[in-house]
Structure formats: C-alpha cells, structure tokens
Amino acid sequence: xxxxxxxxxxxxxxxxxxxxxxxxxxxxxxxxxxxxxxxxxxxxxxxxxxxxxxxxxxxxxxxxxxxxxxxxxxxxxxxxxxxxxxxxxxxxxxxxxxxxxxxxxxxxxxxxxxxxxxxxxxxxxxxxxxxxxxxxxxxxxxxxxxxxxxxxxxxxxx
Amino acid sequence: xxxxxxxxxxxxxxxxxxxxxxxxxxxxxxxxxxxxxxxxxxxxxxxxxxxxxxxxxxxxxxxxxxxxxxxxxxxxxxxxxxxxxxxxxxxxxxxxxxxxxxxxxxxxxxxxxxxxxxxxxxxxxxxxxxxxxxxxxxxxxxxxxxxxxxxxxxxxxxxxxxxxxxxxxxxxxxxxxxxxxxxxxxxxxxxxxxxxxxxxxxxxxxxxxxxxxxxxxxxxxxxxxxxxxxxxxxxxxxxxxxxxxxxxxxxxxxxxxxxxxxxxxxxxxxxxxxxxxxxxxxxxxxxxxxxxxxxxxxxxxxxxxxxxxxxxxxxxxxxxxxxxxxxxxxxxxxxxxxxxxxxxxxxxxxxxxxxxxxxxxxxxxxxxxxxxxxxxxxxxxxxxxxxxxxxxxxxxxxxxxxxxxxxxxxxxxxxxxxxxxxxxxxxxxxxxxxxxxxxxxxxxxxxxxxxxxxxxxxxxxxxxxxxxxxxxxxxxxxxxxxxxxxxxxxxxxxxxxxxxxxxxxxxxxxxxxxxxxxxxxxxxxxxxxxxxxxxxxxxxxxxxxxxxxxxxxxxxxxxxxxxxxxxxxxxxxxxxxxxxxxxxxxxxxxxxxxxxxxxxxxxxxxxxxxxxxxxxxxxxxxxxxxxxxxxxxxxxxxxxxxxxxxxxxxxxxxxxxxxxxxxxxxxxxxxxxxxxxxxxxxxxxxxxxxxxxxxxxxxxxxxxxxxxxxxxxxxxxxxxxxxxxxxxxxxxxxxxxxxxxxxxxxxxxxxxxxxxxxxxxx
Lengths: 158, 762
Ligand code: FES
Ligand code: FES
What we know:
By secondary structure, chain A is of the alpha+beta class. Chain A has helices at residues 25-32, 88-95, 105-118, 124-130, 142-155, and strands at residues 4-10, 13-19, 51-54, 57-60, 73-75.
C-alpha cells in the first residue's frame, strides 16, 4: 500500500511528509518529522501529553491522523519560544518549578497557551478545569497552576 | 581533609534553601529534552512484545516460524533466548532480588502468570510489521485456574502459581506448597501482657487495592548491541547502573560490556527501578544486528509493570485512659503479584514506627497471585500499613476522647525510642511535624455541613548507599558536577546548589549533569529518598577534595606551604603565619593558572553513605462528602514533613505536593479492577483515574527542618514519606464528616454511599 503525501505547516514552516493511513499525527511528528517534544503518555486521548494545536484548536495529536494535517497549521512545543526568547509561560514554568520530570510539560504549555489565547484573565478554577485533560503525576499541580496564573498576569501587562 | 570549608550549623547558607531555576529546565520547556522514547539510530528496528491473554496458563509450545518468515521481520525471541538463572535471593532481605524470578517476569517460561505477561518479542523494520508479526506467533496455552485476591490466594485449595513454593520464614517449614512466599514477624515486649493492661482496645480490618505509580512516560528504550558482545542502551530508568547490572545478568554478559546512557526520565516513583523492555530490546538487537527500540503502550504499562501491592490487614491497638499506648498488633497480607517480593517487610517495620509502644507484634505475609509483579512505589509498603494503623489510631483517640494530634504527640517516638526491628530511633523530627500541624491555622478553621477533618502521620526510613560524583574546575572558573544519579525531580539543581555553596561560588557558575555508566562510578538508583542525601555527600566530598587542591595551587603561586592557605568564600586565603600577606585569590584566578601549577583541577568521590535519617510527616485533610452521590471533595490539605533541610526549596515543596496528590488518588479513585477471567478491565487513564487539576485544592506545605547531623547540609530526604499518611488522613476526614469509617480503598462514591446508608457508625 502506498503512502500518503501530505503538505502542511509546522510551527510556521512549510513541511511535507509521507505517512501510512493509520499513522497518527503524534507518530508523524515524532517518527517522521523528528519533533519529539510532543510526548506520548497514553495514545488514547486520556493524558494530554501529546497536545498540539491544529489551526489554533487544541487537540490530542494521538487522536488525529497524520493525513488530517493536510493544508493545516500545526503548532507544537518546538515552536513556542521565539528563537532564544522563551514564551512567558515557559519562563514562568521554570521560575515556579512547575515541572519535575517534565514529560507532561510540553502538552501542558501548549494547552495553557490555548487557554490564555481565549481567556487572558482566568481564575484559578478556570485554569484547573481547562488543564483537567492534562495529567501530571509528579507535581500535584500547585506550581503549574501558579505558573499559568503568573504568566497570564504578566502577559496582560498588569 | 579541611572540615572548616563546610558550613556548620549557625553559619549562614547563601544558596542552600533558595529556589534557582534548574540547569536542565530550558530543554524541558522547549521540547528538546530527550526521554527514553526520543532516541533513534540509523537503521533502527521497532520492537514489539506478544503478551499473554490468560491470567494463568501453561505454555505448551510457541511457534514463531510464520512470524520469522514475514518480510521485514529481523528477529524473534522467546524465553529460550535468555539463559536460565540460579534460584537464590540476593541482597538484603528488604530489597532482595531473585534472578530466576526476574528472567521469568521479563519473558514467561513454563507458564504465563498474569494477563499481559510477555511471551515473545519481535523486531521489524516498521511498527506495523512488528505488530503484524505478533499476530503470526502461535502459542499453545493450557489455561489454568487463577487467583487474584490476596485472601483467596492464601486459602489451602487456591490455584498455585508455583507448584513447589514453600513459605519462607516459618520454622519448621510447612509440608505443603502454597502461594505464601514468606512470613515475617517482629516483636518487642509482651503482647498479651500489654493488651491485658489496656483500658481500651480497638481492632479493625482493612483492604487496599493495588495502585499503579502512574508515571506519564511509558517504559521505553533503544538498544544497540553488537555481535561482538558489547552494547549500549538509552533508557529512562531510576538507575542506569541497575539497568546495566540486571540487563547484563539476564543476557549473560559482562557488566563492563554494557553501556547505559541516562535518558531523561518521565516519572518513576519506584516503578522504574526494575527492568522490563531493556533486556528484550538488547536481545533483539544482538540477534538482528540492528538497533532496536521498544516503547510500551499505556495498556502494557498497566498490565505488565509493577503496581504496588493490594493488601488485607488487621490492626489492634491498646491504650490507657490517659492516652498512653501499651500494645499494638498488626497482621499485614500483601499481594506480591506473580512473583514474590511485595514491600510487606517495610510495611511491618514502618506501621508502628512513629510511636513509642512497649509491646508490639507485627506480622507480614508476602503472597503471590495472578497479577503483574509489584514494584516499588513511593515509600514502598509504608503507606499501606499506615492506612490501617493511622485509621485505628484515629478511632482510639475518639474512644478515649483525646484530640487525635495530641494523642499522637503524647506517644510520638524520639531519639532513643525502640523500634520493632531492633535498633532505637536515632533522630527526632516526628513530634515537630505534629506540632507544625497543631499550630497551623487550618487545624482550628471552622467546618461546614457534610464536611470533616482528619489527621494522620507516617514514617519512612530514607536511604543512603552508594553514590559517585565528579567535580571539575574549568579554565574559566566555572565548574562541572557530574553524578550517577538519574534526575527525576530536579536533583541536578540540588547538586549544583550544594557544589556552589561548598565551593563558595555562584550557582550559575556550576553546571550539573548526569553521567553515563562508563563515565562515573557506580551509583545506586534514584529511590528511597537517597539522592540529595547520598549523592549530595559525594558531591560535597568531591568539592572538598577540589578545595584542598585549589589551596595547594594557590600556595604554589604564592610560594607558601599548602598548610598556610585556607578556603573562604570562594577564595584561597593565606592563613596562620602568612595571614594577610596576599589578597584572597578567587577560584577563577586559581583556575586560570591551572596549567602552570600542575594541570587540570578535579576530583571524584565515591561513597557508601550511612547515617541516613528517617522522614516523618503529619497531614491534615478537610473533605466534603456529597450525601446524594457519595463523592468526596478534598477541600484543604496540609502536609508537614521533616526534610532535615531543604536544598532547593521549591523542588522539596513539589515533592510534598506531588506525594500528597498521589495519596489522594490512592484514597479515592485508583484501583485495579479485574473480571472473573482475571483480565484487567481498566488498563488506561480513562478508567484508572489519577487525580486531575480540577479535583484538587492547592496543597499547603510546611517544611519542618530538623537537620540530619550526618549530612553536610542536614539533608534527610524529601521524596517519599509525604504519601504515607495521606490515605488515612482522607479516611479519617470522611469518618469525621459522616460518622462512618471506611476500611476498604479506594473510598469511591459507591462505597461511601453504601457506608452512609449502612447505618454503621465509625
Ligand atoms: S498521548 Fe495523546 S492524550 Fe495521551
Ligand atoms: S512533571 Fe512529571 S508528569 Fe508532570
């Protein structure tokens, strides 16, 4: 069976790849495009470690097929910093020690950025519910929530 | 060695106790950090593992011919590809290893002992071909009756996992085989006399479900093994030296021929101190001549890697009217999973350890059943016995009308208190954690309708052991610290802090890394809360050697005797008769002249650190119980833990917060659920529900610091004891809210609702 030829945009760059029908976007990102920043925690849409945005929409890349990336704009953790300058969320995660092992971190950062794009001034409860699809087994979430609230504060310029 | 260079109690610490950004942080927020699954090599094959569909079956035959014939398949292995191992328990009893068991757990031999047990593995040019090949392997199984529950497995007519297993620890040995691998018993005093002297006695029985460590990163590794008998592994584990030793042993290789690179690790909590995929990837690579990568699915992780034990327990405690404990008796039966080795010995030792009780018996049973073999999980064993003991302690306090914290404080162990296993407690710290919660505003805060408050405490040994570190001074005056400890929660930051503090230089001038198994001395696993203690000692020892060398170099530059130079605030300084002769010379200046004074400046220190001090924690939990649904909401949670001293404050807090939340999951949601055929029904994060952000309040931490005199900065260890009291704290809070004592974990809504309707008061 021949592979599909897919043309897409990854973190602002035009990208082409070949993939099998059954390959997920997560597998394509990691195995074909060597963008291993997006993590697999479950492969079944339950942990959020594989979070990316497709045309600005937050999705679990393990639940999207590679072929669905055709003509879309994909954003992954590798595109979050502007060159050497970290996104405020990335900086706040470091300052607040919001990661221990860090394997949930790329997905949580992507999800948090999607939240702040919709709601620049979320309450603690809104952050907790927005991130309820992103499992972290290490931190107990305290410092993640604090980092997101602090980044939101900074990004509002208040 | 010049002891003056180490900051003593009372001297100000500049960096220890602060919270600088971790050295490995940026790659982890930019996606560039490489975890076990993130490595690839040219020509790499994908490995896949065939797993048993049966809970218990004899393997009559395995036919791999069709799989081997599939185009793209490069190797197929079964247990035949691994040498037989000797049946013997190696190492201290508490953590003994038996390679006869280990090789069978990694790849089933005569029988499969649980659903998901590996029976064969393939390596192929793509994931899809590897999966296809698994479907072509024919295994002829003879299904056998199985047993899941621990009490059922102990019955005389239970199906036997090992037809010749005679219980160890009983004298004379039983005449018949059983599923009871081991019995242990600890005693002090006279139990009968103790209970006879009691005014009140409370006895209760408990069950707890096995729970999984739930690290978000599934096990993964990449292996490249040559036909010449050498090989390399990239693997996410809690100890690459242990991965090396176990893998070499199972493949019958020399340890020195296996090189293990430390990948970043995506959580472990004890579950990555053992091996699963590494020997399989290595064997496939050796057989195919190509690099092989294996990634477990989440379903594999649940079905085939270690949860911690489920249990069945009975605890009886006797007390005087004035609150003095006089006797305690505990019987702890633990599911080991398919192979012996549950943490029941820890449970029997830790359960009553926080208390000064003159008469104690603590009995444990290690029982096999058709479940995945248990693996360590955060203070292994202790949270389970603490759930029973601390629930009974709560009931005893209520019975005699005493405040539960004051009751604990009255009986709290301190330096000199005997333990059931022999030695006396050598450290304080427990009472301080109780006092911290007593003084916390949460303890006096009002409660509303359907709300309740519970407290509980816990003990964990904390470990020392073998660790190695090197410290190298670069020509620009910066310093590289390498250790053999996998960094699971920010330990590179702690190592850099201790090095900077000891050397008297800036934190940002220290770069801390984890070295591979060929580049540094043996270092035991990242587990037992041992890294900041033991590896920290190695780092400080190496820094002290470097300081001696730096002083010698400065003496050479100044033409003084080495004894005339001391190290102070990051500078060499003339002392004694030479005092004031020269301006202090900073490390940078000494480093700049290294070539002229004898070449590179650096040192390695390897230690087998004794003197670890135990951890104690006391916790407070407020809950609200929904009387309609039985669901329990955590309103507030306070954890006070004696950490000795926090090196990196935020990461220590993070350990407490994370441990508590794991305990909350254990208390309320998490459990392995089996059907009648012994199949796991909830092998995924949807149905095995770990706590999510919206389930929780902010966890409130109190860092109690009673320094450990056996560590240069007072470290005791922070990682584990925080989980120990959590389930009992939640259960005691529920009891306080609804006057019903739940004794069966998890305390899920149906059980809480049933308790509300039962009318049985706690
Ligand atoms: S890997 Fe996609 S949600 Fe877990
Ligand atoms: S930091 Fe380890 S899972 Fe979140």
